[in-house]
Amino acid sequence: MSNQDKFKVVINKPACCGYGVCAEICPDVYKLDENGMVYVEDEFVPCGMEELAKEGADACPQSALKLVAV
């Protein structure tokens, strides 16, 4: 992954079961709402957070998250 790569978080909301693993791994990107469901304040992953954001997405037991290169 080069520093030029920019990634967008895509959330499959119906698939989210609120495990919160993503937010534990990468709390700067993944947030949990009052019901424990994932959301992001900014759909674009901040520079330097790509690896952690990918790890958080990959750890989702429901595969509700993915990163898409933009």
Q: Concise description?
A:
The protein has 70 residues and is an alpha+beta fold. The protein contains 2 helices and 4 strands.
Largest sheet: spatial strand order: 1-4
N-to-C order of helices and strands: EHEEHE
SS-based class: alpha+beta
Provide the low-confidence segments as ranges: none
Largest sheet at a glance? 2 strands, antiparallel
Q: Over all CA atoms, what is the radius of gyration?
A: 11 Å
State the helicity in percent bands. 10-25%
Mean pLDDT: 94
Q: What's the total number of strands? A: 4
Characterise this structure.
- With 70 residues, the protein is an alpha+beta fold.
- Helices cover 20% and strands 20% of the residues.
